[in-house]
Amino acid sequence: MARSKQSPVFLLQEDEIALQAALVEAHPHVRILDDSGPWPVASTTPPVRASVVDAGSIAGVWPADLVPEFPVEVRSNGTVWGAGTGRGSAVQWLRSRVKSDGVLSSGRLATMLVPETEDFVKSVFRILFRLTTNDLVREDRSTGSPVRMPAYRVGPHALSEARAGRLALTDSALVLHPPAA
Fold first, then answer.
1. Which of 66, 140, 146, 152 has CA 20 to 30 A from 75's CA?
2. Do the Cβ atoms of 131 and 19 come closer than 8 Å?
3. Beta-sheet pairing, 137-139 with 107-113
4. What pLDDT, on a 0 to 100 scale, did the predictor assign at position 166?
5. What b-and-e string marks burial along 102-122, b requiring 16 or more CB atoms within 10 Å of the CB?
6. What is the pTM (predicted TM-score) of this model?
C-alpha cells in the first residue's frame, strides 16, 4: 500500500510566493500547475502557471525533470484532467482561501510517496516546515484551555495577521490561533 504525505496549511499570498520561490530555488525544474478544473479539450500538456497565485484553488508542484510526461486522465466527455497531482507525480497544493472578512480557510499540501519522486516530496515538505511554524492551538470547549495542534502549519504572514487579531484561522468548524503570549 502506498504511503501518503500531507500537511494542512494556512498561507496568505505572500507566504505562498515565498514557498514557491524556495521550492524553485531548491528544484529549478519545478513547475506550478493549475489543477482547479479540466484542461483544454484534447490537451495533454499541463496548464503551467508562472506563480501559484495565478492558479485556481488547486495547484500542483510538478517536478518536470523527474516526471517529464505528466499523467492525464481523458474522461468519456473528452475533458482532460491531471491524474498525477496528489498521486506521486506532483504534490497537490490546495490553497488556503480568504473566505470572508478576516477568515482564512486552511489549505493542504499532499501526495502519495512513490519511489520516483519520494526524495523530491520529502524536500518539498522540509522546505514547507522550514518556512512555516506549527505553533497553533484551539480552545477545548469543556475547559477553555488551549490544545496544541501541531499538524497545522502556518506561514509567517498569516501568523502575524492572526496574532494581530486581523485574521481567524479555520478548518471547517475548527478555529485555531497562536497561543497567548
1. 66
2. yes
3. unpaired
4. 95
5. eebbbbbbbbbeeeebeebbe
6. 0.91
Question: What is the model's pLDDT at position 81?
Answer: 67
For residue 139, the one-letter residue type is E
Strands of 58-63's sheet, edge to edge? Answer: 48-49, 30-34, 58-63, 91-94, 107-113, 3-10, 153-154
The C-alpha cell at 9 is 496549511
Nearest residue to 85 (alpha-carbon basis) of 50, 48, 58, 45:
58
Decide if pLDDT at 148 tops 90.
yes
The helix (run of H) or strand (run of E) holding residue 119 is: helix 118-131
Question: Measured on CA atoms in the order 144, 159, 53, 6, is the torsion positive or negative?
Answer: negative
Phi first, then psi, for residue 84 (nearest 5°) are -95, -15
Q: How far is residue 99 from each of residues 28, 57, 82, 92, 170, measured CA to CA in Å?
A: 32, 12, 26, 20, 10
Alpha carbon distance, N-terminus to C-terminus of the chain:
43
